[in-house]
Protein backbone atom coordinates (compact mmCIF):
# COMPACT_ATOMS: atom_id res chain seq x y z
CA UNK A 1 0.00 0.00 0.00
CA UNK A 2 1.25 3.50 -0.80
CA UNK A 3 2.64 5.49 2.10
CA UNK A 4 0.16 8.04 3.48
CA UNK A 5 1.00 11.73 3.34
CA UNK A 6 -0.65 12.09 6.77
CA UNK A 7 1.25 11.62 10.02
CA UNK A 8 0.35 8.91 12.50
CA UNK A 9 -0.35 11.80 14.91
CA UNK A 10 -3.08 14.33 14.09
CA UNK A 11 -2.86 18.10 14.61
CA UNK A 12 -4.29 17.84 18.14
CA UNK A 13 -1.69 15.28 19.21
CA UNK A 14 -3.81 12.11 19.01
CA UNK A 15 -2.16 8.99 17.64
CA UNK A 16 -4.19 7.42 14.87
CA UNK A 17 -5.11 3.75 15.53
CA UNK A 18 -3.25 0.97 13.73
CA UNK A 19 -6.35 0.16 11.66
CA UNK A 20 -6.93 3.81 10.68
CA UNK A 21 -8.32 4.05 7.14
CA UNK A 22 -5.77 6.44 5.61
CA UNK A 23 -7.09 5.92 2.07
CA UNK A 24 -10.62 7.04 2.96
CA UNK A 25 -9.23 9.89 5.05
CA UNK A 26 -6.98 11.14 2.24
CA UNK A 27 -9.87 11.05 -0.23
CA UNK A 28 -12.00 13.02 2.21
CA UNK A 29 -9.32 15.56 3.12
CA UNK A 30 -8.51 16.30 -0.53
CA UNK A 31 -11.99 17.80 -0.76
CA UNK A 32 -12.38 19.01 2.81
CA UNK A 33 -9.25 21.19 2.72
CA UNK A 34 -10.91 23.19 -0.06
CA UNK A 35 -14.00 23.60 2.13
CA UNK A 36 -11.85 24.67 5.08
CA UNK A 37 -10.09 27.32 3.02
CA UNK A 38 -13.42 28.80 1.90
CA UNK A 39 -14.83 28.74 5.43
CA UNK A 40 -11.68 30.36 6.87
CA UNK A 41 -12.02 33.25 4.41
CA UNK A 42 -15.70 33.75 5.24
CA UNK A 43 -15.08 33.62 8.98
CA UNK A 44 -12.24 36.13 8.69
CA UNK A 45 -14.61 38.50 6.89
CA UNK A 46 -17.37 37.91 9.46
CA UNK A 47 -15.22 38.45 12.54
CA UNK A 48 -13.24 41.31 11.04
CA UNK A 49 -10.81 43.46 12.96
CA UNK A 50 -12.20 43.73 16.49
CA UNK A 51 -15.79 43.25 15.28
CA UNK A 52 -18.25 41.90 17.87
CA UNK A 53 -19.58 38.41 17.12
CA UNK A 54 -23.30 38.23 17.92
CA UNK A 55 -25.77 35.35 17.70
CA UNK A 56 -27.85 35.62 14.53
CA UNK A 57 -28.95 33.46 11.59
CA UNK A 58 -25.77 34.17 9.64
CA UNK A 59 -23.53 33.10 12.52
CA UNK A 60 -25.71 30.02 13.12
CA UNK A 61 -25.34 29.02 9.47
CA UNK A 62 -21.59 29.59 9.60
CA UNK A 63 -21.29 27.53 12.81
CA UNK A 64 -23.14 24.60 11.24
CA UNK A 65 -20.68 24.65 8.35
CA UNK A 66 -17.72 24.56 10.73
CA UNK A 67 -15.57 27.00 12.68
CA UNK A 68 -11.89 27.22 11.62
CA UNK A 69 -9.52 25.96 14.30
CA UNK A 70 -7.87 29.33 14.81
CA UNK A 71 -11.24 30.94 15.68
CA UNK A 72 -12.86 28.15 17.72
CA UNK A 73 -11.92 29.41 21.18
CA UNK A 74 -13.23 32.91 20.48
CA UNK A 75 -16.42 31.77 18.73
CA UNK A 76 -17.28 29.09 21.31
CA UNK A 77 -16.73 31.58 24.12
CA UNK A 78 -18.99 34.17 22.49
CA UNK A 79 -21.90 32.16 21.10
CA UNK A 80 -22.22 29.89 24.16
CA UNK A 81 -22.62 32.74 26.63
CA UNK A 82 -19.36 31.82 28.39
CA UNK A 83 -17.86 35.24 27.63
CA UNK A 84 -20.84 37.01 29.19
CA UNK A 85 -20.56 34.69 32.19
CA UNK A 86 -16.88 35.61 32.60
CA UNK A 87 -17.74 39.31 32.39
CA UNK A 88 -20.40 38.81 35.07
CA UNK A 89 -18.17 36.91 37.49
CA UNK A 90 -14.99 38.88 36.78
CA UNK A 91 -12.06 38.18 34.48
CA UNK A 92 -9.85 37.25 37.47
CA UNK A 93 -12.32 34.73 38.93
CA UNK A 94 -10.47 31.66 37.64
CA UNK A 95 -7.15 32.85 39.05
CA UNK A 96 -8.77 33.59 42.40
CA UNK A 97 -10.00 29.99 42.57
CA UNK A 98 -6.48 28.71 41.93
CA UNK A 99 -5.08 30.98 44.62
CA UNK A 100 -7.69 29.94 47.19
CA UNK A 101 -7.65 27.08 49.71
CA UNK A 102 -7.76 23.55 48.27
CA UNK A 103 -9.68 20.47 49.39
CA UNK A 104 -7.10 17.68 49.56
CA UNK A 105 -9.62 14.96 48.62
CA UNK A 106 -10.40 16.78 45.36
CA UNK A 107 -6.72 17.35 44.65
CA UNK A 108 -5.97 13.65 45.15
CA UNK A 109 -8.76 12.34 42.92
CA UNK A 110 -7.91 14.75 40.10
CA UNK A 111 -4.22 13.80 40.27
CA UNK A 112 -5.21 10.13 40.12
CA UNK A 113 -7.27 10.67 36.97
CA UNK A 114 -4.79 12.85 35.06
CA UNK A 115 -2.63 10.00 33.66
CA UNK A 116 -5.82 8.33 32.34
CA UNK A 117 -6.74 11.37 30.29
CA UNK A 118 -5.93 10.86 26.59
CA UNK A 119 -2.94 8.55 27.24
CA UNK A 120 -2.40 8.28 23.47
CA UNK A 121 -2.11 12.05 23.06
CA UNK A 122 1.46 13.29 22.71
CA UNK A 123 0.74 16.61 24.42
CA UNK A 124 -0.57 14.93 27.57
CA UNK A 125 1.92 12.06 27.62
CA UNK A 126 5.14 13.78 26.53
CA UNK A 127 5.36 16.55 29.11
CA UNK A 128 3.99 18.03 32.29
CA UNK A 129 2.66 21.31 30.89
CA UNK A 130 -0.70 20.12 29.55
CA UNK A 131 -1.29 17.85 32.54
CA UNK A 132 -0.59 20.72 34.93
CA UNK A 133 -2.93 23.03 33.03
CA UNK A 134 -5.65 20.38 33.01
CA UNK A 135 -5.11 19.81 36.74
CA UNK A 136 -5.54 23.56 37.37
CA UNK A 137 -8.80 23.69 35.39
CA UNK A 138 -10.36 20.61 37.00
CA UNK A 139 -9.38 21.57 40.55
CA UNK A 140 -10.55 25.16 40.07
CA UNK A 141 -13.89 24.01 38.68
CA UNK A 142 -14.40 21.47 41.48
CA UNK A 143 -13.90 24.23 44.05
CA UNK A 144 -16.24 26.55 42.16
CA UNK A 145 -19.10 24.06 41.74
CA UNK A 146 -19.41 22.03 44.93
CA UNK A 147 -22.46 20.12 43.72
CA UNK A 148 -20.50 18.67 40.80
CA UNK A 149 -17.04 18.71 42.34
CA UNK A 150 -14.96 16.41 40.19
CA UNK A 151 -16.81 13.87 38.08
CA UNK A 152 -15.18 11.34 35.75
CA UNK A 153 -15.74 12.43 32.17
CA UNK A 154 -14.93 16.06 32.90
CA UNK A 155 -11.25 15.31 32.32
CA UNK A 156 -11.95 14.35 28.70
CA UNK A 157 -14.17 17.38 28.10
CA UNK A 158 -11.73 19.83 29.69
CA UNK A 159 -8.73 18.11 28.08
CA UNK A 160 -10.11 18.50 24.58
CA UNK A 161 -11.21 22.08 25.25
CA UNK A 162 -7.65 22.83 26.35
CA UNK A 163 -6.12 21.25 23.23
CA UNK A 164 -8.40 23.36 21.03
CA UNK A 165 -8.31 26.72 22.83
CA UNK A 166 -4.75 26.48 24.24
CA UNK A 167 -6.00 28.60 27.16
CA UNK A 168 -6.69 27.57 30.76
CA UNK A 169 -9.01 30.51 31.35
CA UNK A 170 -11.06 29.97 28.17
CA UNK A 171 -11.31 26.24 28.92
CA UNK A 172 -12.55 26.91 32.46
CA UNK A 173 -15.39 29.16 31.28
CA UNK A 174 -16.39 26.85 28.42
CA UNK A 175 -16.43 23.93 30.87
CA UNK A 176 -18.57 25.96 33.25
CA UNK A 177 -21.15 26.82 30.59
CA UNK A 178 -21.25 23.22 29.31
CA UNK A 179 -21.76 21.67 32.74
CA UNK A 180 -24.11 24.27 34.22
CA UNK A 181 -26.15 25.55 31.28
CA UNK A 182 -25.99 23.20 28.29
CA UNK A 183 -25.90 19.87 30.18
CA UNK A 184 -27.17 20.52 33.72
CA UNK A 185 -27.36 17.39 35.91
CA UNK A 186 -25.08 15.38 33.60
CA UNK A 187 -22.04 15.53 35.86
CA UNK A 188 -23.65 15.26 39.29
CA UNK A 189 -23.01 12.23 41.48
CA UNK A 190 -26.32 10.60 40.41
CA UNK A 191 -25.93 11.63 36.72
CA UNK A 192 -29.70 12.18 36.54
CA UNK A 193 -29.39 14.26 33.36
CA UNK A 194 -27.51 11.52 31.51
CA UNK A 195 -29.96 8.81 32.64
CA UNK A 196 -32.93 10.92 31.58
CA UNK A 197 -31.44 11.78 28.19
CA UNK A 198 -30.68 8.12 27.46
CA UNK A 199 -34.37 7.43 28.17
CA UNK A 200 -35.28 10.33 25.86
CA UNK A 201 -33.09 8.87 23.10
CA UNK A 202 -34.77 5.48 23.61
CA UNK A 203 -38.17 7.11 23.11
CA UNK A 204 -37.02 9.13 20.08
CA UNK A 205 -35.70 5.95 18.43
CA UNK A 206 -39.04 4.25 19.18
CA UNK A 207 -40.84 7.12 17.45
CA UNK A 208 -38.47 7.69 14.53
CA UNK A 209 -36.76 4.33 13.89
CA UNK A 210 -39.23 1.77 15.28
CA UNK A 211 -37.69 -1.27 13.54
CA UNK A 212 -34.35 -0.64 15.23
CA UNK A 213 -36.03 0.00 18.57
CA UNK A 214 -37.92 -3.31 18.42
CA UNK A 215 -34.81 -5.20 17.30
CA UNK A 216 -32.49 -3.79 20.00
CA UNK A 217 -35.17 -4.51 22.63
CA UNK A 218 -35.57 -8.10 21.40
CA UNK A 219 -31.81 -8.70 21.59
CA UNK A 220 -31.82 -7.25 25.11
CA UNK A 221 -29.04 -4.67 24.76
CA UNK A 222 -29.86 -1.62 26.95
CA UNK A 223 -29.35 1.78 25.31
CA UNK A 224 -27.37 2.81 28.40
CA UNK A 225 -24.70 0.20 27.55
CA UNK A 226 -24.44 1.59 24.02
CA UNK A 227 -24.67 5.33 24.58
CA UNK A 228 -23.57 6.30 28.11
CA UNK A 229 -20.07 7.25 26.90
CA UNK A 230 -21.60 9.15 23.95
CA UNK A 231 -23.47 11.40 26.37
CA UNK A 232 -20.90 11.75 29.16
CA UNK A 233 -17.94 12.46 26.86
CA UNK A 234 -20.01 14.36 24.26
CA UNK A 235 -18.49 11.98 21.68
CA UNK A 236 -14.87 12.74 22.68
CA UNK A 237 -12.98 9.42 22.64
CA UNK A 238 -15.88 8.04 20.56
CA UNK A 239 -15.87 9.72 17.13
CA UNK A 240 -12.94 11.03 15.02
CA UNK A 241 -11.55 14.29 16.37
CA UNK A 242 -12.57 16.48 13.38
CA UNK A 243 -16.13 15.18 13.70
CA UNK A 244 -16.22 15.75 17.47
CA UNK A 245 -15.13 19.36 17.08
CA UNK A 246 -17.74 20.01 14.39
CA UNK A 247 -20.36 18.59 16.76
CA UNK A 248 -19.08 20.84 19.55
CA UNK A 249 -19.30 23.86 17.23
CA UNK A 250 -23.04 23.25 17.05
CA UNK A 251 -23.39 22.27 20.73
CA UNK A 252 -22.05 25.61 21.90
CA UNK A 253 -24.50 27.45 19.66
CA UNK A 254 -27.63 25.27 19.63
CA UNK A 255 -27.41 23.37 22.89
CA UNK A 256 -27.98 19.79 23.97
CA UNK A 257 -30.48 18.78 21.28
CA UNK A 258 -27.49 18.41 18.92
CA UNK A 259 -26.49 15.28 20.88
CA UNK A 260 -29.81 13.67 19.97
CA UNK A 261 -29.41 14.62 16.32
CA UNK A 262 -26.00 12.94 16.24
CA UNK A 263 -27.25 9.79 18.02
CA UNK A 264 -30.29 9.45 15.76
CA UNK A 265 -28.17 9.96 12.64
CA UNK A 266 -25.67 7.30 13.71
CA UNK A 267 -28.48 4.83 14.32
CA UNK A 268 -30.58 5.62 11.25
CA UNK A 269 -27.69 5.66 8.77
CA UNK A 270 -26.58 2.25 10.06
CA UNK A 271 -30.04 0.74 10.38
CA UNK A 272 -29.28 -2.11 7.96
CA UNK A 273 -26.16 -3.24 9.82
CA UNK A 274 -27.90 -3.02 13.20
CA UNK A 275 -30.87 -5.12 12.05
CA UNK A 276 -28.52 -7.87 10.80
CA UNK A 277 -27.08 -8.46 14.30
CA UNK A 278 -28.65 -11.49 15.93
CA UNK A 279 -27.18 -11.47 19.42
CA UNK A 280 -25.95 -9.22 22.24
CA UNK A 281 -22.23 -9.36 21.42
CA UNK A 282 -22.56 -8.76 17.66
CA UNK A 283 -24.92 -5.84 18.28
CA UNK A 284 -22.55 -4.28 20.82
CA UNK A 285 -19.67 -4.64 18.34
CA UNK A 286 -21.80 -3.10 15.57
CA UNK A 287 -22.39 0.01 17.67
CA UNK A 288 -18.63 0.32 18.17
CA UNK A 289 -18.02 0.01 14.43
CA UNK A 290 -20.51 2.69 13.45
CA UNK A 291 -18.51 5.27 15.43
CA UNK A 292 -15.37 4.79 13.31
CA UNK A 293 -16.47 4.00 9.77
CA UNK A 294 -16.17 6.19 6.66
CA UNK A 295 -19.51 7.88 7.35
CA UNK A 296 -18.18 9.58 10.48
CA UNK A 297 -14.67 10.20 9.12
CA UNK A 298 -16.21 12.46 6.45
CA UNK A 299 -17.24 15.04 9.03
CA UNK A 300 -18.58 17.66 6.61
CA UNK A 301 -21.12 15.29 5.05
CA UNK A 302 -21.92 13.82 8.45
CA UNK A 303 -22.67 17.22 9.97
CA UNK A 304 -24.93 18.10 7.06
CA UNK A 305 -26.77 14.84 7.56
CA UNK A 306 -27.53 15.39 11.27
CA UNK A 307 -29.85 18.24 10.25
CA UNK A 308 -31.62 16.09 7.63
CA UNK A 309 -31.63 12.41 8.62
CA UNK A 310 -33.48 12.65 11.98
CA UNK A 311 -36.15 14.97 10.55
CA UNK A 312 -37.92 17.49 12.75
CA UNK A 313 -36.66 17.58 16.33
CA UNK A 314 -38.12 20.60 18.14
CA UNK A 315 -36.67 21.51 21.52
CA UNK A 316 -40.13 21.53 23.12
CA UNK A 317 -40.49 17.80 22.28
CA UNK A 318 -37.20 17.04 24.04
CA UNK A 319 -38.22 19.14 27.06
CA UNK A 320 -41.59 17.34 27.31
CA UNK A 321 -39.93 13.93 27.05
CA UNK A 322 -37.34 14.85 29.67
CA UNK A 323 -40.03 16.00 32.09
CA UNK A 324 -42.26 12.95 31.57
CA UNK A 325 -39.52 10.32 31.66
CA UNK A 326 -37.74 11.86 34.67
CA UNK A 327 -41.05 11.85 36.53
CA UNK A 328 -41.71 8.23 35.57
CA UNK A 329 -38.29 7.22 36.88
CA UNK A 330 -38.85 9.06 40.16
CA UNK A 331 -42.25 7.38 40.57
CA UNK A 332 -40.67 3.99 39.90
CA UNK A 333 -37.94 4.64 42.47
CA UNK A 334 -40.58 5.55 45.09
CA UNK A 335 -42.59 2.42 44.37
CA UNK A 336 -39.44 0.25 44.67
CA UNK A 337 -38.70 1.50 48.19
Name the shape in a single word.
Answer: globular
Reading the helices and strands in chain order gives HHHHHHHHHHHHHHHHHHHH
Multimeric status of the protein: single chain
Helix content: 55-70%
The CATH first-level class of the largest domain comes to Mainly Alpha
SS content category: mainly alpha
Question: Number of domains in the coordinates?
Answer: 2
Show unreliable segments.
none
- The portion of residues forming beta strands comes to under 5%
What is the CATH topology descriptor of the largest domain? Cyclin A, domain 1
- The overall pLDDT, averaged over residues, is 91
CATH superfamily of the largest domain: Ypt/Rab-GAP domain of gyp1p, domain 3
Largest sheet: none
**Could you give the count of β-strands?**
0
Given the structure, what is the number of helices? 20
Q: Architecture of the largest domain, according to CATH?
A: Orthogonal Bundle
Report the C-alpha radius of gyration, rounded: 20 Å
Describe what this molecule looks like in 3D.
The chain has 337 residues and is an all-alpha fold. It has 2 domains: 90-182, Helicase, Ruva Protein, domain 3 (Orthogonal Bundle), CATH 1.10.8.270; 192-336, Ypt/Rab-GAP domain of gyp1p, domain 3 (Cyclin A, domain 1, Orthogonal Bundle), CATH 1.10.472.80. Helix content is 67%, strand content 0%. It has helices at residues 22-47, 57-64, 72-79, 82-89, 93-99, 104-113, 122-125, 129-144, 154-165, 168-182, 192-208, 210-219, 223-232, 241-254, 257-269, 271-276, 280-289, 294-297, 299-305, 315-336. Helix 11 crosses helix 12. The N and C termini lie far apart (62 Å). 35% of the residues are buried. The model has no long low-confidence stretch (mean pLDDT 91). GO terms for molecular function: GTPase activator activity; small GTPase binding. This is Growth hormone-regulated TBC protein 1. Keywords: GTPase activation. It comes from Cryptotermes secundus.
Amino acid sequence: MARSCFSKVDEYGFERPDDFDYETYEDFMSQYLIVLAKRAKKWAELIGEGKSLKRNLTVKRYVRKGIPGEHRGLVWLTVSGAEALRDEWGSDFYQKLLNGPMNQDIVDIVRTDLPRTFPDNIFFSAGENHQQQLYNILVAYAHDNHEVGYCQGLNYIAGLLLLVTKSEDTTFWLLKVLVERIFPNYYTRTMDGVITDIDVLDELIRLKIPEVHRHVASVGLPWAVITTKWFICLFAEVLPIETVLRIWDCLFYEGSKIIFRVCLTLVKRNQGSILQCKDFSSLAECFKEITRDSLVIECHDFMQSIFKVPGSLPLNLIVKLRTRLAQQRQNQMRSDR
